[in-house]
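Predict the holo structure. Ligand: fructose -6-phosphate.
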Amino acid sequence: MEVIICDTQEAVADRVANYIKYLINKKENATLGLATGSTPIKLYKKLIELYNNNEVTFKKTTTFNLDEYYNIDGDNIQSYRYFMNKYLFNKIDIDIDKSKAHFPICLEGENPNLIGDLYEKKIINAGGIDLQILGLGSNGHIGFNEPSSSFMSKTRIKTLTQKTIDDNSRLFNKNEYQPNMAMTMGISTILNAKYIILIATGENKSDAVNRLISGAISSKNPASILQNHKNVIVILDEDASSKVNNIDYYLNAAKENKKLQEQFGYFHELK
Ligand code: F6R
């Protein structure tokens, strides 16, 4: 696991956007796994800038979002499809083929098991995910894999914990319906990505970040399983990194890795 600490949230967004640019310029038809939430908004803004400067094109990119609320259709302003259109897809509209942007949408009456299986098949048919972007829940969730999620899990429906419902209530108006279930890629789906970049910013993520990097690997803390993936980069701002043990080691390793990556490139497993 590589840990990169940036001064500010803007610098985090910049760094991740440049990884994505590098990846797509290396593999034009790359498949990206994307996240919603507050954390990646600055990243998407930066990608739009790069796109407008003709530094990257998404013409041949396929995307799979991590999750979607249960029984919320794509036009609902609370849907993650709506979120992605608003913060990214509409802004690069001329270029992106929306039929290549996938979400695990499951409406009432539809069988979540079948929709989960179909999502997995679509990912496999696309050649698997080259780079998965993740945020981090304050309870250690990745996607909506809440504590106790199986490390073997695939895309499926999950009931959200009260902690996640409370954390996300800031995004809903007082009388607005807030779903308590969501479809989410499973932990095993996420671990099958060839590369993973997890982004965390803000002091409120510092405990979860510390547990992710050096806590015991346990389904009580789903993000901890990322310790076992061979190509994970955790990119933090200073606030989110404030409780990381052994921080000098990571700062030093990041400097050395940067030199090597500038010489030999990134994403060497992608052809
Ligand atoms: C969103 C997702 C979640 C969020 C996490 C952090 O698609 O999968 O795991 O990444 O809840 O959310 P924010 O960024 O809002 O703190």
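The chain has a mean pLDDT of 96. The beta strands are 2-6, 31-34, 62-65, 67-69, 101-102, 131-134, 156-159, 181-184, 195-200, 232-237.
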